[in-house]
């Protein structure tokens, strides 16, 4: 074959050919004929696929994952490769994936921290809260970032996980970039403003369009949870993918969430989406700590005057109707946008400012909910009814 003219455009066939040179030692054949390569996607030179592995092997297969990535990366014209391990399980009750790189032995024993249900626990992390929204663009990441910073301002040890793999924005908002370091077993979270963070955005360039398939999403998320050296944390804040579909439901089921925070804008349509978010968490028995109304009103930069462009009190009313807490309203403010998008969020740089105040207030309420949830030790406080 003659070499292609200027820019080689690789095909899926090229990817499979390259992968057919990678051998899985356990199976004694190459990964393609073993049938463990799934969901190959290719977009403008960016490749992604998943590798099905024995659930009992889990993290032991990391070298195989790396070998597959390297094989594909060597193809001329390939710009980036993202390979993820997925574990399919014939027996639904078996742990889906070995979560602990450090505990790779003992296939029988239930590795510490992982329950029979395949739920992940992260040792050292006391509480995990999800920040969710029915749809994108409502300021979910802005709230997640500033809430994490506000919790830290209140003296908590905080981590921030970007589970929005379709549109990761934590790296930009936290002013972080570049690959995280790894000691071969665990990935070091990247840290700024005293907060440990992890995001798929550190691995894939921000503008890289990626098509994620269900199992890949789960696997990527589980790896970001369990293969990261989070250390001791009072709370891990998760910036959830927008929406209430299968991917979100799976996260809510597999990650032991202490509670959730729903972000909504005041428009009626967004409120409807937020209702779906509340319903999703209720279905999975995750407590809904409450609703944050973002872009609730506009503050004039000159006079500081408030105007409620979308009408006032919608989210508060909805919270009442749904029987959950109204956590607070955040104004639509130029400073909030500029500081978040510029990698220096207001709650980090000026926690005592007027703009940071709503986030600090919201964090106080969320912290109260966390303490209440943990204080009960999983036990519900008895309902005391006073008869009149
Ligand atoms: N309260 C706010 N005031 C001003 N701009 C905001 C506010 N909340 C979010 N934004 C801006 O709106 C855009 C979308 O917010 P983002 O947090 O990325 O939303 P999502 O994560 O829901 O997609 C960003 O440019 C962000 O800076
Ligand atoms: Mg976002």
How would you summarize the topology of this molecule?
Blueprint: H1 12-19, E1 23-24, E2 29-30, E3 37-43, E4 46-53, H2 62-73, E5 80-87, E6 125-132, H3 140-153, E7 158-162, H4 170-173, E8 190-192, E9 195-199, H5 214-226, E10 233-239, H6 246-254, E11 259-264, H7 268-283, E12 288-299, E13 306-307, H8 314-322, E14 326-332, H9 334-341, H10 346-349, H11 357-375
Parallel strand pairs: 4-5, 6-10, 6-11, 7-9, 7-10, 11-12, 12-14
Antiparallel strand pairs: 1-2, 3-4, 8-9, 12-13
Q: Which spans of ≥5 residues are poorly predicted at pLDDT below 50? A: 89-117, 377-388
The biggest beta sheet reads: 9 strands, mixed
- Strand proportion, as a percent range, falls in 15-25%
CA distance, first residue to last residue: 90 Å
Write down the secondary-structure element order.
Answer: HEEEEHEEHEHEEHEHEHEEHEHHH
Q: Architecture of the largest domain, CATH level 2?
A: 3-Layer(aba) Sandwich
Question: How many alpha or pi helices?
Answer: 11
Walkthrough of the structure:
- This protein is α/β, with parallel strands linked by helices and about 400 residues long.
- It folds into two domains: about 10-85, GMP Synthetase, Chain A, domain 3; about 125-375, 3-Layer(aba) Sandwich (Rossmann fold).
- Helix content is about 30%, strand content about 20%.
- It contains eleven helices and 14 strands.
- The protein has helices at about 10-20, 60-75, 140-155, 170-175, 215-225, 245-255, 270-285, 315-320, 335-340, 345-350, 355-375; strands at about 25, 30, 35-45, 45-55, 80-85, 125-130, 160, 190, 195-200, 235-240, 260-265, 290-300, 305, 325-330.
- Strands 6, 7, 8, 9, 10, 11, 12, 13 and 14 form a nine-stranded mixed sheet that branches.
- α7 (about 270-285) runs parallel beside α8 (about 315-320).
- The radius of gyration is 22 Å and the shape is elongated.
- Residues about 90-115 and about 375-388 have low confidence and may be disordered.
- It binds adenosine-5'-diphosphate (ADP) and magnesium ion.
- Magnesium ion binds near residues 141, 164 and 167.
- Magnesium ion (MG) binds near residues 140, 141, 164, 167 and 169.
């Amino acid at each position: 074959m003659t070499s292609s003219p200027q820019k080689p455009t690789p095909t899926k066939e090229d990817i499979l050919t390259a992968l057919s040179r990678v051998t899985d030692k356990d199976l004694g054949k190459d990964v393609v004929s073993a049938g463990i390569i799934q969901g190959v996607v290719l977009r403008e030179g960016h490749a992604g696929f998943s590798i099905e592995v024995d659930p009992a092997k889990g993290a032991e297969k990391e070298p195989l994952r790396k070998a597959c990535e390297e094989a594909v990366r060597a193809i001329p014209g390939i710009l980036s490769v993202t390979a993820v391990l997925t574990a399919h399980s014939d027996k639904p009750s078996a742990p889906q994936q070995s979560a602990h790189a450090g505990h790779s032995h003992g296939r029988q024993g239930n590795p510490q921290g992982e329950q029979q249900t395949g739920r992940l626990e992260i040792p050292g992390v006391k509480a995990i809260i999800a920040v969710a929204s029915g749809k994108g663009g409502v300021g979910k990441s802005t709230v997640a970032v500033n809430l994490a910073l506000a919790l830290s301002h209140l003296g908590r040890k905080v981590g921030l996980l970007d589970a929005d793999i379709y549109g990761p924005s934590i790296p930009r908002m936290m002013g972080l970039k570049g690959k995280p370091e790894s000691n071969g077993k665990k990935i070091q979270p990247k840290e700024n403003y005293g907060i440990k963070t992890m995001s798929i955005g550190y691995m894939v360039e921000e503008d890289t369009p990626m098509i994620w398939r269900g199992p890949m999403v789960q696997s990527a998320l589980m790896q970001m949870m369990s293969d990261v050296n989070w250390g001791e944390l009072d709370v891990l804040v998760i910036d959830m993918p927008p929406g209430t579909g299968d991917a979100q439901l799976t996260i809510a089921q597999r990650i032991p969430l202490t509670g959730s925070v729903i972000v909504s804008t005041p428009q009626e349509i967004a409120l409807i989406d937020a209702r779906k978010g509340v319903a999703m968490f209720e279905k999975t028995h995750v407590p809904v700590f409450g609703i944050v109304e973002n872009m609730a009103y506009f503050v004039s930069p000159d006079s500081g005057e408030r105007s409620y462009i979308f009408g006032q009190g919608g989210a508060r009313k909805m919270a009442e109707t749904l029987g959950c807490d109204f956590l607070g309203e955040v104004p639509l403010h130029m400073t909030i946008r500029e500081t978040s998008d510029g990698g220096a969020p207001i709650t980090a740089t000026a926690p005592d400012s007027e703009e940071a105040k709503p986030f600090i207030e919201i964090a106080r309420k969320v912290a109260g909910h966390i303490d209440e949830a943990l204080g009960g030790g999983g036990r519900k406080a008895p309902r005391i009814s006073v008869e009149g």
